[in-house]
TrEMBL record:
It comes from Streptomyces chlorus. Residues 297-318 are annotated as: Disordered. Residues 2-167 form the Transketolase-like pyrimidine-binding domain. It holds the Pfam family Transket_pyr. The lineage of its organism: Bacteria, Bacillati, Actinomycetota, Actinomycetes, Kitasatosporales. This is Transketolase family protein.
């Protein structure tokens, strides 16, 4: 199956053809995918080398001249390493850009902890005015990248992942989508975790909402869902557990409610393992999710307990 990142470069190359404002800024990672774009638009595709602070700073400079820069590298190098530049060069100067990351929370376990970024969305939450898209399928990634580039001069983060759902859903860059109705609680599945959530909640009397845009958070849709399904809310996010709990609490601040935030744990897993093993170790596989969602909402009996998931003893990540 084509990955979100496979789709990204061809889409942005077409955007370079279509819109003279669009520019691309890279830091070595992903340059091979933009060979044709460099040939066709050498003045608007820039590789700054392994200099992530410059990556964001150069994009901010382009934005201040009227361009719409699309900035790409691994999430840990795009949000965490140059965070001061994201905060000041973009935020403080009110300069817009489209940051498109790869590797998500742990897409490349062999790269070690330096290439993992489960805290990226939570970190951007400390800043004002960011839109955050988390597609769950390559088709959705294409739609949301196009939406982000067309979003005037806004600050937008698009989080690409190797994890993906089997089928895309229509997305509009704004609203939560109701996928399943229920009466014993609401489960919000973010991006590539929708399939696991649907499998986990099969037969449980809970509503399932699908989120591919998590900032701004669609408070109105969550409120509507809780009116029918009750105010027990479970957030299932492919990044740091609890990242959107405050947003859900704010949405329901005037009614009694409970919120459970599921996602990537804070404990560092120091073995390579495989992507699927990291998913299971953080309790984001369908079986673990069913146990935790069922126990919290009371919508169904948990499955038989099993030993905690661990990442096998392979080569050390560092």
């Amino acid at each position: 199956m084509e990955t979100m990142r496979d789709r990204f470069a061809p889409v942005v190359t077409r955007l370079l053809d279509e819109d003279p404002r669009v520019a691309v800024v890279l830091a070595e990672i992903g340059t091979d995918a933009f060979t044709e774009a460099v040939r066709r638009h050498p003045d608007r595709v820039v590789n700054v080398g392994i200099r992530e602070q410059l990556l964001v700073g150069a994009a901010a400079g382009m934005a201040l001249t009227g361009l719409r820069p699309v900035v790409h590298t691994f999430a840990s190098f795009l949000v965490e390493r140059p965070f001061e530049q994201v905060k000041l060069d973009l935020g403080h100067q009110d300069a817009g850009a489209v940051l498109v990351s790869a590797a998500a929370s742990f897409d490349w376990p062999a790269g070690g902890y330096t290439h993992m970024a489960p805290g990226d969305v939570a970190l951007l939450d400390t800043l004002d005015g960011w839109t955050v898209h988390v597609p769950g399928h390559p088709d959705e990634a294409e739609t949301l990248v196009r939406h982000a580039v067309a979003a005037g001069d806004d600050k937008v983060y698009v989080r690409l992942s190797l994890q993906a759902n089997a089928h895309p859903l229509p997305v509009d860059g704004e609203r939560l989508r109701t996928v399943r109705e229920g009466r014993a609680g609401v489960v919000v599945a973010v991006g590539p975790l929708l399939d696991a959530v649907l499998a986990a909640t099969e037969g449980l009397d809970v509503a399932v909402l699908y989120a591919t845009t998590v900032r701004p958070f669609d408070a109105a849709a969550l409120r509507r869902a809780t009116e029918a399904a009750g105010t027990d809310v479970v957030l299932v996010e492919p990044y740091l557990a609890g990242t959107s709990v405050a947003a859900a609490n704010d949405a329901l601040s005037d009614v009694p409610h409970r919120v459970l935030g599921l996602g990537v744990g804070r404990r560092e897993l120091r073995r390579y393992g495989r992507l699927e093993e990291h998913v299971a170790a953080h309790g984001l596989d369908a079986r673990s999710l069913r146990e935790r969602i069922g126990a919290f909402t009371g919508a169904g009996a948990p499955l038989r307990p099993r030993p905690p998931s661990t990442v096998p003893d392979r080569a050390m990540a560092h």
